[in-house]
Amino acid sequence: MSLLTSLLRMRAAHTGNAQRASQLRHLHLSDQPLMLLALKQTGPAARPLAIMLGTDPHRPRLLVAPPSGSTAPMLGTLADAVTAYIDACQRHSEHLPATSSKPARRRYTDAPQILVPNPQTVQHLKDLGDDLRFRSVDDQNPDSRAVQRLGHWLTYLTDRADLPGSAALIPMTSFLGMHWISGQSPLEDEDLATLLAWIDPPRHAASGRDAAHTAEDPATYRPAGPATDAAFDNDHLVPLFDAYAHARRQAQGQQQTRTLQELDRLLATYMQPTWDLMWQAYALLQALPEAKGTARRWDQERTAFTDECNYLAQDGRPRPARDHAVAAAVRLARMEHAATAFAAERAADDPFVRAELRTTGEAFGGPVTTIDPEHTLRGPTGRAQWRPRLTVSTPDPVPMEPGQLLACHTHPNARYKICEVTPADGDTLVELEITAGMGTVTRPNHAVLPEAGAFLVFTIAPDHYRMPEFPARDQTPWTHGGPPADHPADSDEGEGEEEQ
Amino acid sequence: MTPPHQPSPQQRLDTAARAILEQLPMLTHRGLVVDSPPGAGKSTLVAQAADALAQSSAPCVVIAQTNSQVDHLVRRFARHHPHLRIARLTGTEHTVPDDLQVHPGIRIGTRIEALEKTADVIVGTAMKWATVTDRRWPWAIIDEAYQMRSDMLLWTAGLFDRALFVGDPGQLDPFSAVETDRFQGLSHDPMHSAVAVLLANNRDLPVHSLPVSWRLPSSAVPLISDAFYPFMPFHAGGREADRTLTFPITGMRTPTDEVIEHAARTGWALFELPARITGQLDIEAFQAVLGIAERLLARRAITTCEENPEGHVLLPGDIAIGTAHRSQAHHIRALVARQYPQLHGVTVDTANRLQGCEFRVTIVLHPLSGRGDASAFHLEAGRLCVLTSRHRHACIVVARAGIAELLDAHPSNDPVHPGAASKVADGWEANHAVLAHLAQHTIDARAQPGRRRG
């Protein structure tokens, strides 16, 4: 937690109301997200109990797995529902002209977006995906292919959720936590009901804190899943489960159906409050203006989705249970790149983020005192290079060294190099040289030169990123155990043994 | 035949280095790993090995991790192996130091095409080597291989058939700013060091170790060896009598004077400030650190060692101040600039940046000083190891009281993952070992003149 978030948290605790941490929304919100709540049965690792999903706030769809016996029919229905939603995203596509590195291609104009209440649900879906995508496909049973495909999509979506800035699968509590800071602990923030009470208390509540207290009342409180409440298990589920098991043993079909209907009703009332909270949170977030970088990230989301659809059409083998050497390195590089890009774009878009960086020493701000627009220096080849210089006077501490490259929110493509940091009385004078974004002597871009007195905030520029060329999978070098076994699905054992 | 007497450190090192150099040309394995404790002549070995491997028609590729490491290696090649034609492969954004630019034996280039034909040894950072494609050389030497992340090795492993990996296993492990739990347990975890992954996938590779530290004084070796290198014991190169630190000027019997005198006698001292939770910026501790450096210089400390038997007056450049956080180093540097002009030239930096450096005296701000908790970052064994193993004569630690209690209140409870294990010692245990040793060298900052605790 940075100094600024700690301060806001204390202020929220003091005033009893959540504090804004940003005026802008940094993740794309679809007009038709798929809201999904999941409950799992206490005990088994990933046995679903119920899933409530849908794109219409007034008509949630509830799928309940029977207390015992096969979950296949329920999973089949779930697979159909999710696949129908994903297929709907593939209805329209746009043409992308060829670039220097990529041929012309088509890209879907939409991509799936699934909203779940909390990070635990993401983990549950990941477990479910790991279970389902390796299920064998039985030609007699059309459901089995759909279920395997559901496993594939769940793995794709939960993998995307690991990437900072991705909007394919978003846990609502983390989303809200990006924009508001409540007066409770970060651990308590993982609970949707209390977090939302802090942020958007009902009209009759005196404050967010009071509303959170009310929301915690055990008589009315409903956890957002995937784990159920122990008291709910004991008092409500166990009698129904017992009745179901009894009816099953006696082969009383009617009794079984009746018990299942009762279970449906019970779970529908149990999950309805969380369902409503999800849509309340959605409305809150949708009201926020979107930050500039959001659109670019959603474009990437659509590219990734299109790539995945192509992979499914052309290859379609399930992703391996564990990444092999090259895939793991590629994934880590992607994650790191996504994290730095997301951080840099947020800093460029959002004054709140820049303020926070100023408290951690990753940014400084102040008025421009002098500008030397004519400054040039001799390059290594002897040609004159135009490098305008400016000096900024800042009250912030500047723990950076000369040579550090900086970015500025006014011209995201320009780069500034620190030439000298001089502590003056009270303030610090930082002399900067513009190294990119100003054009050349013959074709200068004067817009990048600030006016004297303009207040600018400079943040550390993200490293110039080039995705390194990794060896192909079958070219995995001996240092990493050589090429893995042929089929990704059975690469579990034997990996790393080739060289010996 | 066994020699009748105990072999001297020089003999031991020679035997170890010769064994490695002799094994290299006829190696049947594809790689060889050399573990080296701090200051054990790693760079010398790299230079000699490159010399030996460059005899054949193809150049020897040398891969280091940072530009300063590469410049340092190039300088060493030029000085000690002048007959080699050396090439420095560099990125466009790095400016190679002037003394290397004007050196006639060194060619500098940003593209491999310009260098590969005329060089015996080509040196560059791993990041730069990763941009080289479609080439393969018979041999590569990878320096500081424990600082290299294994995904970086994946980019560069296609460049060579065989490789010599040299590194210090006790230093800081590579890190990433993103969540990397999903890779835990993989034998090719991209977050592990290059050597860890290499050995996990090639269990039969020969592993050698250099047995002697030339840098550390004999007072420091038992502690550093036990606490941070439990699997790789080593010895001190210098004899105790050769390393001295004396003060021709009498002190004022203040706690600060007492702490430097104690460190001069024993090689270690802990300057203990009263217990207090201060967060990262502890001005009192910063002033204590700078006060110690100031007294060392004001009393014109004289050091003698094997290289300077006649004595050397301690200069600001011989002293380093080590911290855990960048903000701390920045603050101390700012204090030096404003209030301590006589300390201009003292190195102030974080553990990460001090890796591989050597100084006569180091003053360390303990990573756990003034903290209310002990996180994995502050407990990391490599961090404390780097900070306490940079010195040739003495190491003075400055800390708030109560670290032992803090450690006991925060036992390391990180989940244990099966699979490739790092060679680094457990941070919690290493911290306790260092602290237990320092307890005998504690000077209370509040003590009345002439009275000492412990």
Short description:
The complex is a heterodimer of chains A (500) and B (454). Chain A has 500 residues and is an alpha+beta fold. Chain A is 40% helix and 18% strand.
Describe this structure in words.
Chain B: One of its GO terms (molecular function) is 5'-3' DNA helicase activity. The complex is a heterodimer of chains A (500) and B (454). In chain A, helix 2 crosses helix 4. Chain A has 500 residues and is α+β, with helices and mostly antiparallel strands. Chain A has 12 helices and 17 strands. In chain A, the strands form 5 sheets. Chain A has a 6-stranded antiparallel beta barrel with strand order 10-13-16-15-14-17. The model of chain A is unreliable at 488-500 (pLDDT under 50). The longest helix of chain B has 16 residues, at 283-298. By secondary structure, chain B is α/β, with parallel strands linked by helices. Chain B is globular, with a radius of gyration of 23 Å. An 8-stranded parallel beta sheet of chain B has the order 4-3-5-2-6-7-1-8. A 6-stranded parallel beta sheet of chain B has the order 16-15-17-18-12-19. The A-B interface holds A 162, 164, 322-326, 328-329, 332-333, 335-336, 339-340, 361, 397, 399, 423, 468-471, 475-481, 495-496, 499-500 and B 30-31, 130-131, 133, 150-151, 153-155, 157-158, 163, 176-180, 182-183, 186-191, 194, 197-198, 200-204, 326-327, 330, 334, 337-338.
Comma- or semicolon-separated keywords:
heterodimer, A: 500 residues, alpha+beta, Elongation Factor Tu (Ef-tu), domain 3, five-stranded mixed β-sheet, 12 helices, globular, B: 454 residues, alpha/beta, eight-stranded parallel β-sheet, disordered C terminus
